[in-house]
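In this supplementary section we document a worked example of the pipeline. Step one takes a protein sequence of length 168 as its only input; no multiple sequence alignment statistics are reported here. Step two produces a three-dimensional model, which step three serialises into structure tokens for compact storage. The input and output of this example are shown verbatim.
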Amino acid sequence: HEEGPLLVLVLVPFAALAFRRGLILLIPLFVIGPLNEVEASVWDDLWKTRDQQAMEALEQGDSARASQLFEDKNWKGIANYRDKEFTSAAKNFRMNKTSWGKYNLGNALAKSGDFKEAISAYEESLKINPDNADALYNKRIIEQLIENQSNPEKNNSGNENKDEQQSQ
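The serialised model returned by step three reads:
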């Protein structure tokens, strides 16, 4: 709902009176003002919501600022994830009960090193949407990673056999 045109209609009579009195010449001084560095201010809050400002910051690559501005938990989690704040991202994604939210939670937990919780999140995502191929793929990768960490001698012996075969 755009209400800008209505605002213009309300301001037209005042502009006409200001023009008649010569005050219209002072308006450019208020509009132009000092040209400082661009930053969030009350002026930005008048025209854009905090989420819109945060989206703009995220698109410009400023994910740290975006994570501070976002009010929406999902977008805040995305900004935290892009800022490599995986623990904070996981905290925000926990609120989302959708397959997508659980998938993102799993990714954030995996990046933060909490592999068992990540697998649990991927399983929850797959319960909600069994066709989520990305969650299934990531779950298998994390399971392989846990298996490789728990059996390092198996992996080393396999590598030694390959080295022996290559040297012969």
